[in-house]
Amino acid sequence: MRELLWPRKGFLRPIRYLTMRVLRLSASPHAVAAGVAAGVFVSWTPFIGVHFVMAFVITYFLSGSMVAAALGCAAFGNPLTYPFIWGITWEIGHLLLSREDQLAGQTVDLAALFHKLNFTELWKPVLEPMLVGAIPPAIVTSVALYALTLYTVKVFQTRRHIRLMERARLRLAVPAGDMPSV
To answer: Which of 76, 79, 146, 157 has a CA positioned 20 to 30 A from the CA of residue 174?
Structure first.
């Protein structure tokens, strides 16, 4: 029970693990960054069941890494972040659609709408504002994370390449006593 409330290795360990997992992908920095950006972009949309499929399609057209897209989806869109994402997209959507005055005093019975699963009745009050409200934060976060991931992966891969070259040089170096005489 203690591990659930206060993990022994800390709360940041999963974040560090995902970061290293993304950095160690054997793809170009653009491919990794495009995959992460696509995963983050689709995580803002209200269509939870198809996030991975949407991320894979976007990643395919951007020539990105599918693994990075899956990691971006899983890291950004998860049960801990969805309530915040939904609240933000809901508010931004209503602001952009100018629906504040129309919904004043009205309530939307989401349980009844989801129970019926009638898409046409669900679209106007719920999905439309969330989809419209998802576009601005999705663009901002995916572009920012693309740039951050691209830079970070470039630096990581360059340093890794230098380390590997140095190790190879040291292994191939001939000891001074074994030098052939001329």
So the answer is: 157
| Residue (of 162, 172, 99, 171) closest to 129 by Cα position | 99
pTM: 0.76
**CB neighbourhood size of 119 (10 A):** 9
Q: What count of other Cβ atoms lies within 10 Å of the Cβ of residue 152?
A: 18
Contacts of 50 (CB under 8 A, 6+ apart): none
Residues 6 or more apart whose CB falls under 8 angstroms from that of 182 comprise none
Residue 33 to residue 143: CA distance in whole angstroms = 10
Beta strands in the chain (DSSP E): none
Distant-in-sequence, close-in-space partners of 138: CB < 8 Å, separation ≥ 6: 40, 41, 42, 43, 44, 45
What percent of the chain has a predicted confidence (pLDDT) above 90?
Answer: 39
CB 130 within 8 A of CB 90: yes
Distance CA 44, CA 40 (A): 7
User: What is the tens place of the pLDDT at every residue in 8-58?
Assistant: 777 677 777 778 888 888 889 999 999 999 999 999 998 888 889 999 999
59 closest CA partner among 38, 44, 74, 76: 38
